[in-house]
Design a protein that fits this description.
The protein is of the alpha/beta class. It is built from ten helices and twelve strands. Helix 8 links the parallel strand 11 and strand 12. Helix 1 packs parallel to helix 2 and helix 8 packs across helix 10. The radius of gyration is 16 Å and the shape is globular.
Length: 252
Amino acid sequence: MLIPRIIPCLDVRDGRIVKGVQFANLRDAGDPASRAAIYQDHGADEIVLLDVSATLEGRQAALRTIAAVREALSLPLTVGGGVRTADDAAAMLDAGADKVAVNTAAVNEPALLTRLADRFGCQCIVLALDAALRPTQSSWEVVTRSGKHRTGLDAITWATQAVALGAGEILLTSIDRDGVGSGYDIDLLRAISTAASVPVIASGGASGPDDLVAAIRAGVDAVLAASIFHDGLWTVDSVKRQLAASGIPTRQ
C-alpha cells in the first residue's frame, strides 16, 4: 500500500488564492507562493494549483504565478486551468509544474489526453474530474467550465475512458461538497477508486482529519483540502498526527 498523500490546494485567480463554496462567492485567501512555502514547512506532500478563471477567460494558467510558486517550493506541483493544447501543457511544465491537470478540454476532445500522454508521459497527466450528483439517480455527471456546465456524461464512464486514453491520475472533486465542509462524498470516492486503475485524489468537503480518514479508507490514494488549511483550522502536520493516531501512515 502506498502511503497516502496530504495535498493543500491553491485555487488562484489574478495571482491570488481564492476560496468559495461550489466554485462561487470567491474570497481572497492569500498569496500562493508564500502559502505554498508555509504548507511545505508544515509537511505537505504535494501542492495543487488551479487557475479557476483560466478556462472561462479562454487562456492558460498564469505562468508567472506558477513560476513564483515553483521558486518557493521543492515539492511536486500539479497545475491546472485552461489547458487546451500540448503546447499549453508544455508552457506550464516549463514554468515549474511537475504535472498538468486537464478538465474541460479533455471532455470536449478526449484525444487530447492521448496527445499529452504521448508527449509528456502518463505520469504528468492528471484528469481533473468535477462530478455532481444526479438528483434522481444514484450516479454522478461530469461538470466542466469551473462548475458552470453539466455535461450529462457519467462520471464513472468518463474516469475509465480517460485512464484508457492516457490520464495517469484523477483529481476527483465533488461539486456538491466543495467548500461546504460536510465531508467528502464517500460513495463517489469509492465508485471512482474502484473503477479507475490509477491513483485518485479526493477533493471537496473536508472539514477536518476525520473526513480525510474516511476518504482514505474509501480507497483514495491522496486527500486534497483547501479551507481547513487556508483558514488555520488545521495544519498539515496536525492532520498527519491525527491520521497516524487513526492507524493511517503518513510521510513525516
